Amino acid sequence: MPQKLESEKKEHARASLANAFAVNTSTTNITPGGAIGWKLQLFVFAIAFLAVVSRRPDALTNPQFFGEDGAVWYPDAYMLGWFSPLFHSLNGYFQTLPRLVSALALLVPLRSAPLLMNLIGITLQVLPVNILLSSRCQNWAPISVRAFMALVYIALPNTRELDAAIEEGQWHLALLACMLVLGCVPRTVLWRTFDFSVILLSGLSGPFSIVMLPIAAIFWWFRRERWRLVVIGILAVTAVIQLSAILHTAAATRPQVGLGAPPGLFLKLLGGQVYLGALIGESGSPAQKGEVLLAIVAILGTAVVVYCLLKARLEIKLFVCFAFLLFVASLKNPMVSMTVPQWQVLRDAPGIRYWFFPMLGFAWALVWCVTSSRSLFVQIAAGIGFFAMIVGVAHDWEYPAFTDFHFPEYARQFAAAAPGNVVIIPIFPDGWVMRLTKKESACSTLPVGHIDAPASGARVSGVVPVAGWVTAAEPVQHVSVFLDRVFAQSVKPNMARPDVDGAYPQSAVTLKGWSTVVDTSRLAPGRHEIEARALQSGGCDADFDIVTIEKSK
């Protein structure tokens, strides 16, 4: 009798939750149907690939490194080897996807590395289209509706930062993983292997699994299919890994300048960057929009989202929930500035990664309202939104090319550089650089470090303190400091650097901090270089940083 009462309680709880989500619990895998064959899939992939490239053609015609691709991922893979960096977190969490792609890029000459990375980034950007039109997503909506959703995804405005690059490829990978989590159960070993690989890689390439885990659990509660327990297990393991990294390293690696987050500014971000961004593109940025207009847009856009959450199919509801939960999580601890309150920078930052998921969730909610709502008023209102989106698509279709830093010439300089020398390569965004130390035969891996003082461009005279940090796969015997390639001082690392320890947990160097002084009194006025070079116990002797200083008269 107690067991029967307990069973009845569980069934009553499940039915209550089902009513809240308006789901028919008697059907475990409702399939509106529709999928395209493999030949048409290849054609769709090619068309979508060309569409993505047309938005930023220089990704293929003049490929260059972008952001962390050149500042972190590729240099780490080259200097530390492909395996060791996989265990290094950055900005508080592990980012396995760009590290693996950078490792693949080592298989081609430096000149071709950005092209290979861009091709992989574009492929990841296109794959959600193919999955959406396959049988794996036939439980989302009829094929005609999913085709509309795919078109909106490819043409989505206000996505400059995520277009045609691996730098933000983990966001497209997370979209792909979410579609598989909410898709039909894979029926073949090949599909199950694909799902397992994508969901695992996504979970290890950002904190997405932390948000995706409860979504997967809710979906299993309604579908009760055994495979979904495997998915929950993968997400749980990766969520624990990412949470551990966040707890141990985020405080030391993420900015502590504060959010600067008054409620009015949230309405500007939601109404301007998300809803107007999805409709009229980067011109919807709240910088020049009135607060009343943005508040009205925020209310109307949220009404569309809430209506979709009340009326749409479970898969659509859960995807929209995932999209906006990510938005909330992103705003809680964004990383866009080291000095200015974060939300103030976000207000004037169209096209960045934090807007992608909520914009897509809103846009797909509009698709559902137009195609599936039974209310004529809702259909007309959503249709007006899509007419506005035509403006955004036209305005944002082709993004400006990256600044041409003549990367092929720097690649030739690196190929001709002497072993142990640093080559500094300017990359996009303007002001960013990639530092590569040319390997020599004794260097299986290269040291990594930084000159903290003096700062690059500092004006100096007389005796100048020089300090920084260094880490390596082998113990470092000493750090040598050079002025204009002429030896000046040598020092053994002898100071603890807890801020660096968290970023390089596998380092063989315990005390990573070092400091010394150099005498600049004999230098002529003008620009000069301070170079830091580390000698490892295995015999590898290589530069790890160079700064430019200005000698005063």
Structure explained in plain terms:
This protein is α+β, with helices and mostly antiparallel strands and 553 residues long. Among the domains are: 1-30; 439-551, Immunoglobulin-like (Sandwich), CATH 2.60.40.650. 52% of the residues lie in helices and 13% in strands. It has 19 helices and 10 strands. It has helices spanning 2-21, 38-55, 58-61, 68-80, 96-105, 113-132, 143-155, 169-181, 189-203, 208-223, 226-253, 263-280, 291-311, 314-332, 342-347, 356-372, 376-396, 407-416, 498-501, and strands at residues 422-427, 432-437, 448-453, 459-460, 463-471, 476-483, 486-491, 513-519, 526-536, 541-551. Strands 4-10-9-6-7 form a 5-stranded mixed sheet, with no helix packed on it. Helix 5 crosses helix 6 (113-132), helix 8 packs across helix 9 (189-203) and helix 16 packs across helix 17 (376-396). The radius of gyration is 26 Å and the shape is elongated. Mean pLDDT is 88; it is low at 16-31.
Tags for this model:
553 residues; alpha+beta; Immunoglobulin-like; 5-stranded mixed sheet; 3-stranded antiparallel sheet; 19 helices; elongated
Quick gist of this model?
The protein is of the alpha+beta class and 553 residues long.
Beta-strand residue fraction: 5-15%
- Name the overall outline: elongated
The whole-angstrom Rg is 26 Å
Query: Can you list the strand order of the major beta sheet?
Result: 4-10-9-6-7
SSE series: HHHHHHHHHHHHHHHHHHEEEEEEEHEEE
Going by CATH, the architecture of the domain at 439-551 would be: Sandwich
Largest sheet: 5 strands, mixed
Number of helices, counting only DSSP H or I runs of 4 residues or more:
19
Alpha carbon gap, first and last residue: 94 Å
Count of individual beta strands: 10
CATH class of the domain at 439-551: Mainly Beta
From the helix content, strand content and strand pairing, which structural class follows? Answer: alpha+beta
Helicity level, as a percent range? 40-55%
Could you say what the CATH topology of the domain at 439-551 is called? Immunoglobulin-like
What low-confidence regions span 5 or more consecutive residues with pLDDT below 50? 16-31
Mean pLDDT across all residues, rounded? 88
